[in-house]
Structure formats: structure tokens, C-alpha cells
Design brief:
This protein is of the alpha+beta class. The protein has one domain. It contains five helices and ten strands; from the N terminus they run E-E-E-H-E-H-E-H-E-E-E-E-H-H-E. A six-stranded antiparallel beta sheet has the order 6-9-4-1-5-10. A two-stranded antiparallel ribbon has the order 2-3. A two-stranded antiparallel ribbon has the order 7-8. Strand 7 and strand 8 form a beta hairpin. It is globular, with a radius of gyration of 16 Å. The two termini are 31 Å apart.
Length: 189
């Protein structure tokens, strides 16, 4: 398969101007490679912090953690995009998704019970074309400022634990066909 030219990540809009997604909406994060997954003793996959890059979560350079809202798209659209984003050769014909409900992400709070994250509709035109169902996960602007201030830094989650909580919210991981994801030989201990 020939991939279109271009970067593998997008540059997001200014998320302060975007609309939050419905808390009940299901979003999908495309799993690029098996390196983004850990396996429990029962062989079930879990998303790792590699799938939630800190630089994207910080919103640096207009970036965000890219997801797609599932309410307005069909599986063919998800599968088509995932095929180009996938970096795992074994998954080329059946890419892997991680699903989460928005409220599991917006329900992550700091020590003062303030929301840590925003999940906003963020339609984009990227190297694959238009994606009207694209959304962005970013840390709230108030908590970004608190994280920079030595007096309030202890009120917010550190980046690593925040990435872990976000990754854990994506608890439904499967191939686009619906089949479960199996551990690849190279992932074996």
C-alpha cells in the first residue's frame, strides 16, 4: 500500500475556541504500534503512556492528543484512516483502535477536584484530507498554568501519572474488525 505524503500527526487548532464533546460520546485513538500496548496476565492489552505523548498533551506547537469521535462516522472511515496511521506491519489489514467514553477522560481531576482535561471537537484538514470528526485531548488551560507555578504545581497531576490515567481510560482495545488484539511474538517477554 502506498501512503500519502505528509506527517503522521496533525497540527491542531487553538483548543480554547473549540466545543467540548458530549460526555457520553465514544472516541477512538488509533494504536500505531504494539509498542503502545502492555499485556496483562490474561493476555488483555492496555494502552501505555507511549500512546499519550506528553508533548501533544501539553499542546505545544498547536499539537494535541488526536482522537476521532465515533458518533458521526462509520467503521469504514475509521478503518481507512487507521490503515494509513498504523505502523505495525502485522496489523496492516486490520488496524487496532483504543476506545474510551469522553466522560472517563473529563472525569480525571486534580487534587482540588478540578477537571484536568478537555476533549473538544477539532475538525481538521490533514495529510489524509478532511476529518470533521477529529477531536483533541488537552490539559485544561487553568491546570497548564498551575503546573508551571511552583506554588500550585502540587495541586495538579504530574505529567506521567496524568498520561497513565488517560491511557487507562481507553479500556476497550480491538482490531477494526472487532477481533481481540493478540500479543505479537516480538512483544513476548
Amino acid at each position: 500500500m502506498t501512503l500519502p505524503p505528509g506527517p503522521t500527526e496533525h497540527v491542531s487548532s487553538d483548543t480554547s475556541q473549540l466545543s467540548p464533546l458530549d460526555p457520553k460520546e465514544v472516541i477512538v485513538r488509533y494504536v500505531r504500534s504494539s509498542e503502545w500496548l502492555l499485556w496483562d496476565d490474561d493476555g488483555r492489552p492496555a494502552l501505555t503512556i507511549l500512546g499519550i505523548p506528553e508533548k501533544d498533551l501539553r499542546g505545544r506547537g498547536g499539537r494535541s492528543v488526536s482522537v476521532t469521535g465515533c458518533m458521526q462516522v462509520n467503521n469504514d472511515f475509521l478503518a481507512w484512516r487507521a490503515t494509513f496511521i498504523n505502523k505495525q506491519p502485522e496489523w496492516q489489514d486490520d488496524p487496532v483502535y483504543a476506545f474510551a467514553e469522553v466522560e472517563r477522560l473529563t472525569g480525571i481531576h486534580d487534587t482540588k477536584r478540578r477537571p484536568e482535561l478537555s476533549v473538544c471537537a477539532d475538525p481538521i484538514q490533514d495529510w489524509l484530507g478532511p476529518n470533521e470528526s477529529h477531536a483533541s485531548i488537552v490539559r485544561t488551560s487553568a491546570n497548564m498554568e498551575r503546573a508551571k507555578n511552583p506554588k500550585t504545581r502540587n495541586e495538579v497531576l504530574a505529567w506521567g501519572p496524568l498520561q497513565q490515567r488517560i491511557a487507562a481510560a481507553f479500556s476497550d482495545i480491538r482490531h477494526c474488525s472487532g477481533l481481540p488484539v493478540k500479543k505479537l511474538c516480538e512483544d513476548a517477554p
